[in-house]
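Q: What would this chain look like folded?
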Amino acid sequence: MRIIRLIISDNAPNGVVLEAPLTNVEDASMSHPLSLPFRYLPFFRSFFLASLPEKFDSLNRVGYLSCPLLIVHGLLDRIIPVEQGERMFQAAVSGGRSDPSQVYFEVFPEAGHRQIKSFPKLRLLLRQFIPLSSESQH
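A: My prediction, written as structure tokens:
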């Protein structure tokens, strides 16, 4: 579900967990391993990226979430680099939230893009995060 839909929904969530979030389509495609042969071509951005109808600009929208937010990212993620998760965290904290202390960012040093769910640490984080979400008053 897109962040903007969460923001304007009558049934806004009590909390949001983002796993390896991308900042936007351009950042994700420029860092994706499959784009390596193409990303330096002069027409790549104008032809491919500009033609996309949706940019999935989560970076500029995440700051509008008022509920608790947990962002988890694998340090070894080669699909969506951890820097994008860090940027999402910074945008969420500095986005005008009433309580920036309800934004959490956790890096899994040994995880790639799809391995986070296999780490017991994730279950522990979720057990800690869910009660915070239940108490949230957004």
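The mean pLDDT is 85.
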